[in-house]
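Minutes, project huddle
Topic: does the predicted pose make sense with succinic acid bound?
PN asked that the exact inputs be recorded in the minutes so nobody has to dig through chat later. Recorded below.
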Amino acid sequence: MTYTLKPLTPVLAAEVTGIDLTEPAGPALRKALYDAWIEHAVLVIRDQRLTAPQFADAARLFGDILVQQLKQFVLPDYPEVGTISSRDLPIRDGRLHVRGEEFHTDHSNYPAPPKATMLYAINLPDRGGDTQFVDVRAAYDDLDEATRRAIAGLHSRHVYESSRSTRKMAELTPEQRAAIPQALQPLVIRHPENGRPALYLNTGRMEGIAGMPDDAAHALIARLFAHATQPRYEYRHQWKPGDLVIWDNRSVMHQANADYDPTQLRYLYRIMLQGAPLQAYEEVPA
Ligand code: SIN
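Predicted holo structure (tokens), as shared on screen:
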């Protein structure tokens, strides 16, 4: 297959055109897609026509599929494929309440958070419903040396819903709640494949910083979050039907938008890929 890879911003995200993921991908194409995803952190593969099992097969090009946690949002016939549907969302004050409407990284409370999340667009509203991404590698690279030194070696406990969260997480059944993990995660992680450092932030789940008074910890988290979410680190994806987007949860944060007409259907398939425990980035300026 001859395909085209085009960077979408100078910092992150690239677009792939000219491939058909219903066809078997040989080792060369598979490696090229994987490497492009690691480098650009967000890969937008255009013009696909996938059934749910074909979407799952496309996911397996990049890794092993994570068992879906929220069983209420899966396809009954293909439980490895989750769904994001505007029909599942409550309307509050005339506006949809969207899961993920704040920059975050998925399942950071897991000891081994998913390395990737993938969405495949089926139905889209006429306008709005974009997904935004910010590059937390570039955000770390731009920190001044004093801040890099100050945050080196710090860890934060990530829980299902932080006591300071402004983001309301999905309701859990008592069984789900009992099984939900928490994890101590480095504030700066090292990418396991390309070695790049990145900030690891998820304000909805971070319960302070180990060894630091709560107010100081949350002030530091808020400062790093404000830095990392500046427009210069952002790629904003405006969905087209047939887009498959895969992003690297170790390199970007993402957020959904509830700015579309709530009577219109926004429906996407969603899969996450298994990750490994996160490594701390050890190199700091002397
Ligand atoms: C997500 O956070 O996984 C969903 C993003 C979106 O619906 O735009």
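Observations noted during the meeting:
- The chain has one domain: 4-280.
- The chain has six helices and 18 strands.
No decisions taken; revisit at the next huddle.
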